[in-house]
Design brief:
This protein is an alpha+beta fold and 201 residues long. Helices cover 31% and strands 24% of the residues. The protein has helices at 14-27, 31-38, 52-58, 119-131, 181-200, and strands at 9-10, 63-64, 77-88, 96-107, 143-151, 156-165, 172-173. The strands form two sheets. The chain has a five-stranded mixed β-sheet with strand order 2-3-4-6-5. A two-stranded antiparallel ribbon has the order 1-7. It is globular, with a radius of gyration of 18 Å.
Length: 201
């Protein structure tokens, strides 16, 4: 069978980039979550809302979408977002369901907040309230699968939240033009910045 290179790309893997944009965009609208990631003292939730510039700086620094554990010494609280376990949809094998993992890692010195609250669990609560049973690009709502504690090393530990995403006909798009990658990234940041500024008003 010959490969048709002219038809519109259709694959559930295309939904990953769409979902990632939605997820990061929603995270950066959540003032409590941004405080928990940005501030490193016990009264993080009592601090002022961070600026739009500080919010943008969280991308790639505190909020990571590359599955590699590397530590930025200027940050001590992290969320790693990854897409894994792609399997055929039981009723429509043409498409693939997958899991979305949110791995929360905090330095041990950052775990304790005031009133016996624990930072990783407060971050997990914000993520769960934002995305559990919510609709991204898939045909179904995100389904909570489970949460386990993660001990990364002698400095960082946290929680890993798993959600199941169901996909279907929405996993279509015109083939992405790589020559417009810089323009695409610029527009993404402009969209985020616009959302943050409107949320701060």
């Amino acid at each position: 069978m010959r490969i048709d290179r002219t038809k519109v790309a259709k694959s559930s893997f295309l939904s990953a980039e769409k979902d990632m944009g939605i997820i990061i965009g929603e995270m950066l609208k959540n003032e409590r979550l941004k405080k928990l990631l940005h501030y490193t003292d016990k009264r993080a939730l009592e601090q002022p809302n961070i600026t739009s510039e500080q919010a943008l700086a969280l991308i790639g620094k505190n909020i990571k979408n590359v599955p590699k554990m590397y530590i930025d010494r200027t940050a001590e609280n992290y969320i790693f977002i990854s897409f894994d376990n792609f399997i055929p949809n039981p009723t429509n094998p043409e498409f693939r369901d997958n899991t979305i993992e949110f791995e929360i890692l905090c330095h041990y010195d950052q775990w304790m907040l005031t009133d016996f609250r624990l930072r990783p669990y407060r971050i997990a609560a914000e993520i769960d309230s934002m995305f559990d049973e919510k609709h991204l690009t898939g045909i179904g709502k995100l389904e909570f699968v489970g949460c386990v504690q993660v001990v990364s090393n002698d400095e960082f530990a946290g929680l890993s939240l798993l959600y199941r995403a169901v996909h279907g006909e929405e996993d279509k798009m015109v083939e992405f033009d790589k020559t417009k990658d810089e323009e695409f990234q610029k527009k993404q940041k402009e969209t985020y910045l616009k959302d943050y500024e409107s949320g701060l008003k």
